[in-house]
Amino acid sequence: MILLLARVVPKSSLNPHRVRPPPLTKKQEKALKEPLIKLMQKRQDEAAVSWPQNLRIEPIISRRKFGNTPKSLRSTLKKMLTER
User: Fold this and answer.
1) What is the 3-state secondary structure (H, E, C) of the chain?
2) How much is the average pLDDT of 2-30?
3) How confident is the model at residue 15 (pLDDT cuts 50, 70, 90)?
4) What is the pLDDT of residue 35?
5) How far is residue 83 CA from its own chain's centroid?
6) Burial class for 22, CB neighbours closer than 10 Å (0-12, 13-18, 19+)
7) Separation CA 20–CA 3 (nearest Å)
8) b/e map 33-58, b = 16+ CB within 10 Å
9) What does the pLDDT read at residue 83?
10) What is the largest CA-CA distance in the chain?
């Protein structure tokens, strides 16, 4: 049998600098983070010539971006938009 004892301490006796704020919600956390593509593009701009050629930054292209284009043309358009 395990006994758990807790001591109730008044809030006024705690050091306010040691009290941690509540954790961020998922929405707050997402608002603070910068998208990975933007971060990588910034790094690529800073590195300029020293950026490795095999690292390409290509945005994700969804069907919504193409709108009502026929299926046969989608793959061709995606190939045209990729960096070579």
Assistant:
1) CCCCCCCCCCHHHCCCCCCCCCCCCHHHHHHHCCCHHHHHHHHHHHHHHHCCCCCCCCCCCCHHHHCCCCHHHHHHHHHHHCCC
2) 80
3) confident
4) 84
5) 23
6) exposed
7) 27
8) eeeeeeeeeeeeeeeeeeeeeeeeee
9) 63
10) 70
Q: Taking Cα atoms as reference points, which of 63, 42, 44, 64 lies closest to residue 53?
A: 44
Alpha-carbon span 82 to 77, nearest angstrom? 9
In angstroms, the CA 63 to CA 71 distance is 10
Query: Would you give the distance in Å from CA 76 to the centre of its chain?
Result: 29
Taking only the tens place, the pLDDT of each residue in 66-80 is 788 888 888 888 788
Taking CA atoms, 8 is separated from 5, 13, 18, 22, in Å, by 10, 11, 17, 19
